[in-house]
Amino acid sequence: MKTAISSDNINYKKKDLIFIKIASFFATGFYIGLIPVAPGTFGSLPGILLAFWLNSIHPVIAVALFLLLFFAGIFMSGFVCEKKGIHDPGYIVIDEILGMALALLWIEMSVINVIMCFIIFRVFDIAKPFPISYFDKNIKGGLGIITDDLVAGIFTNILVNLFIRVMV
Fold this sequence. Notes:
- The chain has 168 residues and is mainly α.
- The protein is built from seven helices and no strands.
């Protein structure tokens, strides 16, 4: 007589649980997103470290690594949301990490520039002016979770670059 749960099913479920834990660890920014107050703000901080690192390596390698993290972020955050049955929960902060890193990409990493990028990025991410709001509302799944923050990062980068050019 065959039982309803075979050892294959149990192994699959264990593997699935392990992958959910790995995906959650990555999507929550190494569990930073589980901080109960302002997880997006705290989640943006590792993006500064990522930007320091990306700005210190060859631009082609930096783009390749960023794209790898981008696609991993789409997959992992989409997977976690699908398994949890919710869209873009606050504890998923890989989008803030990548958006903040993009905001600082190829900008001189002075204290004032980092602070300026951080504040502008957080304002864009929270207020979601157009077209950031368009991406937030109209793209679903992991891609939607990541894209609005990347657009906020791009706009931040452009604004700070313009400010630097005008002030120098």
